[in-house]
Amino acid sequence: MIGIWANVAAIIVGTVIGWVFKKVLTDKYVATFWTALGLAALGVGAQTVVANLPKSHYPVLFIISLAIGLPVGTWLKLDDRANAWIDRTFHTALGEAVATASFLDCIGALAILGPVNAATTGNQTFLYTNAMLTLVCAIVFGAGFGLGMILEVPVLFIWFTAIYLVAKFLSASFFSPALITEMSIVGGLLIVAASFSLLKIREFKSIDMLPALLVPLLFFIGLAIF
Prior knowledge:
Shape: globular
Largest sheet: none
Radius of gyration: 17 Å
Distance between the termini: 32 Å
Structural class: mainly alpha
């Protein structure tokens, strides 16, 4: 679990460092961070999709995931509820930033295999590597959006801990390369959507898209059972 706590610490420390920079920057320069983050997220998301799509054994699963996940998220009003709470608490629009940072830090091979390896072999290398990337990401997001980015901590902690516990007490083999590929494709598309919102190209309710990530998990659970 120490690797998971390292990722939590990376978010907190990185956000504080970024917030310090934000205090000395004018709004004009802070706005450039929004653009930089949007472009970076767009690149990471697109690269994730392009790299994983050729490896997919279920090439329509990501379409089904989005087709199911987005209506469910919309019906549950996840984005509206999350943003309403954030607005009341922090008096700022942090929702898209927190969602984007969470997608970047929690989706991909490092973020999934890290907790699995830690649970099964005690090897924390992947988690430490992810923590370094998370630290850099948190600094940039902290500079752009301030201390509110610490809201990513419970998202990352719950996600990593859930994977860790499943691998520790149920089955590490469940997190197969095929599952990671499918989740990476869906996650990459969610990152692209979030980047569009940051760049003001088109507004997407990123938090409403989160249920789409559960569809590949449920699909592979079904395969394992039947």
